[in-house]
């Protein structure tokens, strides 16, 4: 909140709204020490909390950031800049982190790869809530975030795909930066997050199957890596019965390694250690997301009676 209240644009030109989604910590006590608007509600999930914030907001443009992010001093100014184009309906900013753990550094390079893709897109189809801006009228016309999402996972993807399908122009501004305090610092947590991403992305893909083929945010190499890794493991297991399956599995593993080369080269320029270790992390990512996808197909798409 201190970062939000120390922006390059005048304080009287914007308002800060905090929605307390039924927390059990000192959110309310801490928020009371700042010149912001604070609302507490019964716990209903992040989508309902964000929608409440929009209902209470007076401005025509709505900005979101997450509770584990610290915005830079020019963040609001940069998030608003693309709206000078009247055709722009939504804006996405960029993540950075100061974390030094290897897993967190890999996660940051992942984002950097995707940011490089987004910079080349005339219109994007992914607006993440850590640094998101919408014209309020457009946000409301789409119905806001789907409140049936019980957790903070892919509800922003769902809204983004909906806006994209409606033909709205959305853009990326890499100068609108927030620092994330919570990139996954351990292999276990990273794998868990990617497993959940795989599951919830399938929930969204069911609604927008064309995005499973291609969107502006997901590298096509990721899909190849999931298929070759799981195909290789399957054929390796099958080789106990069919000897020739061993050679096919080795071929798929080689193709998997080849598919990691471009990212490894990209990562090596930014962080030599991550470049060297990237095949391991990519294998972890592919296996975790793939298992999340399998979990979706095995268990259906109902979680806690919702969706």
UniProtKB/TrEMBL annotation:
SUPFAM superfamilies for this protein: Nucleotide-diphospho-sugar transferases
Protein name: Glycosyl transferase family 2
A Pfam family: Glycos_transf_2
Gene3D superfamilies given in the database record: Spore Coat Polysaccharide Biosynthesis Protein SpsA, Chain A
Top EC category: transferase
Family that this chain belongs to: Belongs to the glycosyltransferase 2 family.
Domain Glycosyltransferase 2-like: 2-139
GO MF annotation list: glycosyltransferase activity
Enzyme Commission number(s) of this protein: 2.4.1.-
Domain of life: Bacteria
TM ranges: 222-241, 247-268, 280-298
């Amino acid at each position: 909140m201190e970062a939000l209240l120390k922006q390059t644009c005048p304080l009287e030109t914007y308002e800060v709204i905090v929605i307390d989604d039924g927390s059990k910590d000192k959110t309310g006590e801490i928020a009371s020490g700042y010149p912001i608007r604070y609302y507490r509600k019964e716990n209903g999930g992040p989508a309902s909390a964000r929608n409440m914030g929009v209902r209470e907001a007076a401005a025509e443009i709505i900005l979101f950031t997450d509770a584990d992010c610290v915005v830079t001093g020019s963040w609001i100014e940069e998030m608003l800049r693309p709206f000078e184009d009247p055709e722009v309906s939504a804006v996405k900013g960029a993540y950075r982190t100061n974390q030094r753990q290897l897993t967190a550094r890999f996660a940051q390079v992942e984002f950097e790869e995707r940011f490089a893709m987004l910079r080349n897109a005339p219109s994007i189809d992914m607006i993440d809530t850590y640094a998101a801006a919408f014209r309020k009228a457009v946000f409301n016309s789409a119905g806001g975030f789907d409140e049936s999402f019980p957790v903070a996972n892919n509800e922003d993807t769902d809204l983004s795909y909906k806006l994209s399908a409606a033909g709205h122009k959305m853009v990326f501004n890499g100068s609108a930066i927030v620092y994330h305090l919570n990139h996954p610092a351990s292999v276990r947590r990273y794998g868990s997050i990617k497993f959940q991403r795989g599951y919830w992305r399938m929930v969204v893909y069911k609604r927008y199957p064309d995005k499973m083929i291609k969107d502006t945010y997901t590298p096509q190499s990721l899909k190849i890596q999931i298929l070759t890794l799981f195909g290789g493991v399957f054929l390796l297991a099958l080789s106990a019965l069919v000897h020739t399956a061993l050679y096919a599995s080795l071929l798929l593993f080689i193709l998997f390694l080849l598919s990691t080369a471009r990212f490894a080269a990209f990562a090596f320029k930014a962080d030599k250690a991550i470049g060297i270790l990237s095949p391991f992390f990519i294998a972890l990512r592919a296996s975790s997301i793939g298992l999340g996808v399998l979990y979706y197909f095995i268990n259906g798409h109902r979680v806690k009676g919702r969706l």
